[in-house]
Amino acid sequence: MPNSTEKHAPANFIRHMIDEDVSQNKWGGRFATRFPPEPNGYLHYGHAKSICLNFGLARDYGGQCHMRFDDTNPEKEEQEYVDAILDAVRWLGFDWGEHQFFASDYFDRLYALAEFLIQQGMAYVDSQTAEAMREHRGTHLIPGQNSPFRERSVVDNLDLFRRMKAGEFPDGAHVLRAKIDMASPNFNLRDPVLYRIRHAEHHRTGNLWCIYPLYDYTHCISDALERITHSICTLEFEDHRPLYDWVLDQLAPQLGWHPQQIEFARLNLTYVVLSKRKLIQLVESQAVDSWDDPRLPTLVGARRRGFTAAGFQLFTDRIGVSKADSWIDMSVLEECMREDLNLNAERRIAVLNPIKLIIDNYPENLQEDCFAPNHPLKPELGKRAIPLSKELWIEREDYMETPSKGFFRLYPGNRVRLRYAYVIECTHADYDANGQLLTVHAEYLPDTKSGTPGSDSVKVKGNIHWLPVKSVEACEVRLYDRLFSVPHPGTEQDFMLDINPHSKQIIQAWIEPALTGAQAEERFQFERHGYFVADRVDSHVGKPVFNRTVGLKDTWGKTHA
Ligand code: ATP
Ligand code: MG
């Protein structure tokens, strides 16, 4: 097996543990992790960290990562979520091969193992009401009390458990509990419930079962059955580890495999919420358009937003893995996306907020090709021609009648370069009766065409993009921004009130003809604007719709201070 020094991912405490295990041959050459979502919602950015971590380790240590659905709760789970989860993991670039499992595949075995625990005197059927169970649970200061049913005989327990399975009892009449220690300082060890009665249809097993195993019981056994070596989970399960180990210790003769549970700090990200409950609220209240709304921190949303799998991988590597909870600023994720897109997105030109520029000394019918590189870092991608003519679209923001300090673009008397074309000098502007800007006028300097000898003899500070009025296409562009206006939504008031009212703006823009052929999910840098993706749902070749993924620079602090 390779060791971590040969991997591209940075070292962390989990990799150190694995290296140690490898050097001692603890697992006999086996390496297996798993990603175990509950199919009760869409995956979010936090899950991406867990996916990149688990699948990344499997890749680097020459093992495998199992895709396992933890589907023990019949009421909330659906096939739709299973499909969306598989899609998202694939989209992140990972492949589980034949290692796709469902906890529900193990229902028979889990049941048999529960009977074994009963036979060993390690589990019993409790018939207290839920309320009585709660009362007897104790507190941090007061130990719990034993249930009056705790000393039932093995024969009675088996009989009742079998009748629970046979459907003789209504929901809540009985539960199966582990017999551990009602006085344990760890609540998870105070005779935790292993099985409960639920007369509900399960998305895979239908009505075959009316008792369902609980997470803590199911998870460790599923791990052992799949011969997982490193069972990596988030910190809130640290207190559950003694129970994980207890169950596997009791079942050691049956299972013969005892994975190592390792906890790491979950991802907390500013300007979003990452809890399924809150995400559901955002969708159901229609604060966002759908589960794949590009503003939502779901992975389907991220994909529509134009975020990339490589960007998530970079992000996961960069934020690292630790044992201490912390917050990661959204700008870190955005910067990772920008880095990946900067390398991989071709450049195009779009005018998002147009105003007309007339070059008064440019011949009426002349048209000259100007050549824009498709990627400044990749000359092999070539250039494309954009025809310059007398009337152009430029950005409204590139003109000011009276320039503010530090404004180097168009104002009467100032010179700027039209990208890939000539230096122009602004002469004046026309306004309508209401004082609205109509047209900007300029004259061009014929000897300054980009790429010709001596073209840079005239020095200018501003450099603006443009499109010819005669050959542009109109297109819908959706300008997305952060969904929340504050870093920690919900701390000062209800999180729904922290929604950024400007998180989505739809505009009509002018795009260069080369963009009309964009395929859904094709990504571009619109020069001077940022990164954009052809929407995977609404964009069609010939009639594109673009979503803004992220701006070119982190301007949030400046614009929202
Ligand atoms: P939520 O808290 O949003 O409801 P969950 O933890 O209940 O999510 P699961 O489907 O159980 O969702 O999660 C599958 C895996 O993803 C688990 O191993 C869990 O630890 C991990 N995971 C969930 N949220 C995060 C996060 N914010 N950061 C890292 N890993 C996470
Ligand atoms: Mg969970």
Question: Helical content, roughly?
Answer: 25-40%
**What ions, cofactors and ligands are bound?**
adenosine-5'-triphosphate, magnesium ion
Report mean pLDDT, rounded to a whole number. Answer: 96
Provide the spatial order of strands within the biggest beta sheet.
Answer: 12-25-26-27-23-24-13
Helix run count:
14
Portion in strands: 15-25%
Identify low-pLDDT runs: none
Category by helix and strand content: alpha/beta
What coarse outline follows from CA principal-axis ratios?
Answer: elongated
| Oligomerization status of the protein chains | single chain
Q: Quick one: how many beta strands? A: 27
Largest sheet: 7 strands, mixed
Rounded to the nearest angstrom, the distance between the terminal CA atoms is 51 Å
What fold name goes in the CATH topology slot of the largest domain?
Rossmann fold
Rg over C-alpha atoms, rounded to the nearest angstrom: 31 Å
Description:
The protein has 561 residues and is an alpha/beta fold. The protein has 3 domains: 4-264, HUPs (Rossmann fold); 276-347 and 475-559, Beta Barrel (Ribosomal Protein L25, Chain P), CATH 2.40.240.10; 352-465, Ribosomal Protein L25, Chain P (Beta Barrel), CATH 2.40.240. It contains 14 helices and 27 strands. The strands form 7 sheets. The protein has a 7-stranded mixed β-sheet, with helices on one face. A 7-stranded mixed β-sheet has the order 21-18-19-20-14-17-22, with no helix packed on it. α3 links the parallel β2 (64-69) and β3. α2 packs across α12 and α7 packs across α8. It starts with 12 loop residues before the first helix and ends with a helix. The mean pLDDT is 96. Bound molecules: adenosine-5'-triphosphate (ATP) and magnesium ion. Residues 36-38, 46-47, 49-50, 233-234, 266-267, 274-276 line the site of adenosine-5'-triphosphate (ATP).
